Here is the input.
Amino acid sequence: MTAVAPAKPSTFGRFAPAAMGFGTLIVMLLAAEALIRAGWISQYIVPPPSEIAGSFGRLFLEEHIVRRFFYTAGECLTAGVMLTVFGIGIGVLMHRFKLLQQACETWVAALASAPFVLMYPLFMVIFGRNAWTIIMMGFISALPPVILKTIEGISGTRKVLVNVGRSFSLTATQQFWKILFPAALPTIFVGIRLGLIFALINIVGTEFLINYGGLGQLIEDLAERYDLAGTYAAICFVILVSVLFFMALERAERWLRPVD
Amino acid sequence: MAETGRLVRAHAPLMSPVTLLRVAIILGALALWEFLAHSGWLYRDVVPSLPAIGRALYGLLASPDFWFNLGVTAGEIGVALAIGSLAGLALGLLLGVNRFLSRAYEPYLYYLGPTPKIIFFPIMIMWFGVGVESKIALGALSCFFPVVLSVAAGMRAIDKVLVRVGKSFRASPWQMAMKIYLPAMRHPVINGVRLGLGFALIGTLLAETKLSNKGVGFLIIQAYSTFDMPRMYAMLIVLFVLAIGANALVGRLGGLDSIKRT
Here is the structure.
C-alpha cells in the first residue's frame, strides 16, 4: 500500500489570500482618494494618498530622511549592544547564583510589564535633552525580556549536553562557553529580538516626545508645521522601517533556530 | 544517654534565604539612593532624598487634584480598553474562524503590531481634536493589535473535538461562538486583554504627556516643567504600582496563573 501525498494547493490557492489582502489595501487607498477629492472627507484632516506618495521625494531631498534614519539606527544599535551585553550578563549572573535568581526573577518579570517609557521626563532631567536620554529609554525598557530569555535558555539546556561536558571534565568557564551558551543562543536571540523591537518602539517614541533625534523628531517637526502630506508620509516611512526591521529579525531568528 | 522518644521542635528560620536576600537588596538599594542624594555627585534634586519622596508621595495621595486627574486617566484607559478590546475580539474571531481571511489580512496586523503607536498621535489630534478623545483613540489603537492577534491565534488553537461536538449538536453560529469558541479561548482572550491594557495605559499616558491639560500624564509633564523632582518620582511610583498591579489583577481574574501552575 502506498501513502497518498497531500494534495499541493494550486497556484491560485497559494497566492489568492495575499492578492486579496493587497487588493483590499489598493481599493481602500483608491476609495480614500475618491472620497477626499469629492470633498466627503476633509483634505485638511486626511490628505489624498496621491499627495502623500508625492511628498516622499520631498522627505528625501529636503528633510534628509536618510540621514535621520541612520541617526535613529545608530541609537538603536547602541541600545541593542548595551542590552545584549547587560541583559545576557545579568541573566547569566542570575542563573549562576540560584538564590539571586529566586529572589529577583519575579521582579524582572514584573518590570517587563512596567511602563518605563513614562520615565522620559525623568531621563531628560538626568541625561539632558540629547541622544543618551533616547538610548537609555530604549535600553531600560528592552532589558527585562533579554534577562528572562537568557535565564530560560541556559536553564533549558538538555541534561545530556551538560553531562557530556562533565564527562570531559570541563571547567565551569569551558562548560559555559562550549555547552551552555551555544545551547541557549537561539532562546537568548528570541529575547534580543523582543528587546530590539521594544527598543525601536521606545526610541522612535521618545524622539517624537522630546522632539530630538531622527525619524521621531521628523514626524513631530512636520506635524508642528502642519505639513499634513509630509506627516503622513513620514509615518508611513517609520512603519515601513519598523516592518522591515521586524522581518529581518525574524529571518535571523529562523537562521539561528532552523529546527523547532 | 541520648533522650529517645521525645519530639524536639525544630526552629524554623523567621525568613527564608530568598526573603532575606530580597530584603537585603531593597535595603541596599535604598541606602545607595540616600547616599547618592546626599553625595552631591549629581545635580541637586535629580536624586531627591527618600524622606522628600515620601513627603511628596503623601502630599500626592492626599491631594484631591491628583485623584481627579487619576480618574480622568483611568476613564480614558477604560474607554480605550473597551473599544480596542471589542474591536480586536470581533476581528480576531473573524480571522480565527476563516483561514482565507487570516492569510489575507493577518500579516498586515502582525507586522503593524510592533510599530510605535505614539507616532500616530498627530493624526489622532487632527481626527479627534486635542481633548480626551484623541488620547482614547491612541489608547484604543495601541490596545487593538495585541488583542486581535491573541484572539485569532487562540481561536485556531481550539481543540477540534470541541468544534466537532458543537457541530454534531447542530449548534447555530451564535451558539458555536457563545458555547464553544468563547469559553474555549478564555485564556488567550484574557492574555490579549492583559497585554492590551498595558499598551492602552502607555499610549494614553504618553498622549497626555504630549498634549493635554488634565490626566496623570499632564501632571508628570507639569512636575518636569516646574522641576518638582520629588513629585515626579512620587507619580512614577504610583503609576508603576498601578500598572503592574492592574496587569497582575487581570491575569489573576482570568486564571492565567493557574495555567502556569499546571
Q: What stands out?
A: The first helix of chain A runs from residue 11 to 37. The radius of gyration of chain A is 24 Å.
